[in-house]
């Protein structure tokens, strides 16, 4: 099973709303990622969790708040977003590079299409 | 500057034709990944190459990494409409395992296959 699930599939929110994106994997992966993707661009890394601890924050604004409650779940809490934050948000997971000392392929979820009005 | 150059940017082929997409870097790559993406959907992992000269195949898709580990090609034989989508190459640019969670990406190649 190489499935990463994401909910919701689509989300429309106002600039004053608070919402959360959810991601789940059951592959035993200990690295989980949030990416933001704009149209016709490659994914931009936002956050990386390794063994449930935040290991990379790519200078993401504080209106995005990640959370990793356990090894299978990853959340992205959204608050006071701007229209320019509208994008496809992708979650991914992989074996952690520390295991075996090499890089591992990342498996992506289907994404959440976020529109901020 | 873009560290991974992908070419061509877009490609339209007739069904049944062969095609090649290239991904090039000026630096040594320590892990090269090929993904496919349909518009508005997630990325589908195709193949990963790590060793210089390595070649992998899956169904009608073959990917190669050159000996210097600076260029990869993705070749599709006898293309079908199901091959249409955006092909992205991503790479780990450091041998430091602790740092290669962050991939660098090419800008993608948009492939259309006409029936």
Describe this structure in words.
- Chain A has no helices and eleven strands.
- Chain A is mainly β and 117 residues long.
- The model of chain A has no long low-confidence stretch (mean pLDDT 93).
- In chain A, strands 2, 4, 5, 6, 9, 10 and 11 form a seven-stranded mixed β-sheet that branches. A four-stranded antiparallel β-sheet of chain A has the order 1-3-8-7, with no helix packed on it.
- Chain B has no helices and eleven strands.
- In chain B, the strands form two sheets. In chain B, strands 2, 4, 5, 9, 10 and 11 form a six-stranded mixed β-sheet that branches. In chain B, strands 1-3-8-7-6 form a five-stranded antiparallel β-sheet, with no helix packed on it.
- Chain B is globular and about 45 Å long.
- Helix content of chain B is 0%, strand content 53%.
- The interface between A and B is medium-sized, with 34 and 25 residues.
**Content-based structural category of chain A:** mainly beta
Name the shape of chain B in a single word. globular
Number of helices of chain A: 0
Major sheet size, sense and barrel closure of chain B: 6 strands, mixed
Helices and strands in order, then pairings?
The complex is a heterodimer of chains A (117) and B (115).
Chain A: E1 4-7, E2 10-13, E3 18-25, E4 31-37, E5 44-50, E6 53-57, E7 64-70, E8 73-79, E9 87-94, E10 107-108, E11 112-116
Parallel strand pairs in A: 2-11
Antiparallel strand pairs in A: 1-3, 3-8, 4-5, 4-9, 5-6, 7-8, 9-10, 9-11
Chain B: E1 4-7, E2 10-14, E3 19-25, E4 31-37, E5 43-49, E6 55-58, E7 61-65, E8 71-76, E9 85-92, E10 104-105, E11 109-114
Parallel strand pairs in B: 2-11
Antiparallel strand pairs in B: 1-3, 3-8, 4-5, 4-9, 6-7, 7-8, 9-10, 9-11
